[in-house]
Amino acid sequence: MESFSSIKDIKNKISQWKSEGYSIGFVPTMGYLHEGHTSLIQRAKKDNDKVIVSIFVNPTQFGPNEDLDNYPRDLERDTELCTANGGDVIFTPSAKEMYGDNPCAYVDIKELSQELCGASRPGHFRGVCTVVLKLFNIITPDRAYFGEKDAQQLAIIKKMVLDLNLPVEIIGCPIVREADGLAKSSRNTYLSNEQRKAAVVLSQSLALAKTSLENGERDANKIISIINEKISSEPLAKVDYIQVVDLKSLKTVNSITDDILVAIAVHFDKTRLIDNFSFQIKK
Ligand code: AMP
Hints:
Elements: E1 2-4, H1 7-19, E2 24-29, H2 35-47, E3 50-55, H3 75-84, E4 89-91, H4 95-99, H5 110-113, H6 117-120, H7 124-139, E5 143-147, H8 151-163, E6 169-173, H9 193-198, H10 200-214, H11 220-232, E7 238-246, E8 260-268, E9 271-279
Parallel strand pairs: 1-4, 2-3, 2-5, 3-4, 5-6
Antiparallel strand pairs: 7-8, 8-9
Helix pairs in contact: 7-8, 10-11
The chain binds adenosine monophosphate.
């Protein structure tokens, strides 16, 4: 497994691969890899000759009171997991390497960034879009892989690629879960034993909502109530948001007539967890 932290070096490697005619798949991550990340790497390896995994805890997507300094890191283990799952190269730039001294340019997909996680994390998606565009410019991948776990992020990246005519195909990959249903996340490591047990309420509440939709419920407020009731039954859980939005525009819907995303964010003390599912309306 080769690892590069300089933009110049990784670009040289990519030029070499491109001159040999290899296709390139790219998996951007913040590291502390788990099976959610490795599922993206495996899928990228299936679709491409070479796979680049970036590990960069991007400071510009963290708010002032968020967990940037405490975000879990383990490069040695990440390198092993990348190798074992088909990664060819790891890119681990420093913040200085990525942003230089006085960055002024940024990308902001405002339309899709203000709802859901954007409401409680102002500036988050601007940081995400800016770093992802920079990484796309450096790596020039044929395809890039993102998890449906971060459904809003996936929708925003797809829109950025469409609006800015970026020559990369965006592939969304399904949520990987723990045995009890909790969506895998690097942030799950913050949970105490008690909180970890309680966190199953996220996926359980979504399962109830999904059943109700499958049984024909089309009132978004009823779906929200079902989720809220379940989460409220867990004393350690505090709802950040429960929303039913249009799958493409991410705008709130009241009556469900088109494909939707049901998304939630829940606090366990300082740890904020997200989960979601999309629901297609048969026409
Ligand atoms: P992160 O390191 O949290 O920035 O995540 C990097 C990528 O992995 C993003 O595209 C995430 O959506 C994806 N990802 C994180 N957790 C999961 C999961 N449980 N299942 C599928 N993809 C995931």
